[in-house]
Write a structure and sequence with these properties.
- With 262 residues, this protein is α+β, with helices and mostly antiparallel strands.
- It has four domains: 34 residues; 64 residues, Trypsin Inhibitor V, Chain A (2-Layer Sandwich); 78 residues, Trypsin Inhibitor V, Chain A (2-Layer Sandwich); 67 residues, 2-Layer Sandwich (Trypsin Inhibitor V, Chain A), CATH 3.30.10.20.
- It is 23% helix and 34% strand.
- The longest helix has 31 residues.
């Protein structure tokens, strides 16, 4: 074998040896890194699309598991993730996230619990479970139990009262309803003008203002009290005169309508 031929063979062997060494080192590196656990980033608070790109760059796959409405949180923002941030996970791991909805969930009045005549605090708790806030708008004097719901208002409009529910009303989760509640005693009313009214009509007026008849005196024979006319009252009606809830008005009735009545 000539020297030249020997040198060629030596070079070929050296090249083959180098290739073998490179192949072994590459295989060792792959084998060492394969299955290695990586630290998962914290995606909570990030926009889903941005987080998805970051996860893909790090071999993870982001999957939306659920979307919920949250007041004040922009749509698409990640609210939670599983596995949790900074967990050690393998490559290509699926990461499940919950994101904020872009639009609030909407409920109809019929989907809310019954409200009129119910105790406020208990209904406030029930509404909170539906992500609806409650506030007290006002009180009205009522003969029933105190702190019970008499009216419900939304954005300056009454939507629930003794007359029933307004039609076509929707309520967004995260919004607020205002309530008018019952209150006992202490109300002040203008003294009603009962003169010339029949007894039955006057009684209806007093009942609506939670007032009562006191003494009922008669002038002449009365065959039917409900149809008798009121010809005098004490305290008398006067402009600006007031009377407290629960007080009484004394009256005199007659079966004949007085001449001063129109």
């Amino acid at each position: 074998m000539t020297l030249k031929r020997f040198i060629i063979h030596l070079i070929i062997m050296a090249v083959l040896l180098a290739l073998v060494i490179i192949a072994v080192l590459t295989w060792l590196r792959f084998y060492t890194n394969h299955g290695q656990k990586l630290e998962l980033a914290d995606y909570i608070g990030m926009n889903y699309e941005e987080a998805k790109k970051d996860a893909s760059d790090n071999t993870f796959e982001l999957i939306i598991n659920d979307s919920i409405h949250k007041v004040g949180v922009p749509g698409g923002e990640i609210l939670s993730q599983n596995p949790t941030p900074f967990s050690k996970v393998k490559e290509k791991r699926k990461v499940y996230v919950t994101t904020a909805k872009y639009n609030a969930d909407v409920l109809t009045l019929d989907e809310l619990p019954s409200l009129y005549g119910k105790e406020f605090e208990s209904k406030k708790r029930e509404l909170s479970f539906l992500s609806i806030d409650s506030e007290i708008k006002d009180y009205k004097y009522d003969t029933g139990e105190p702190d019970h719901i008499l009216e419900v208002w939304q954005d300056g409009k009454r939507i629930v009262s003794a007359a029933g529910k307004a039609k076509g009303v929707t309520i967004e989760k995260g919004s607020k309803l205002s309530f008018v509640l019952s209150k006992r005693g202490g109300g002040t009313f203008e003294i009603p003008d009962l003169l010339c009214m029949q007894y039955s009509a006057a009684k209806f007026v007093l009942d609506s203002r939670q007032l009562n008849f006191g003494q009922v005196m008669t002038e002449g024979e009365i065959s039917n009290e409900s149809s008798a006319y009121i010809i005098a009252q004490d305290p008398p009606y006067r402009v600006g005169g007031t009377i407290q809830m629960g007080e009484t008005i004394n009256i005199t009735i007659s079966s004949t309508k007085p001449n001063f009545c129109r």
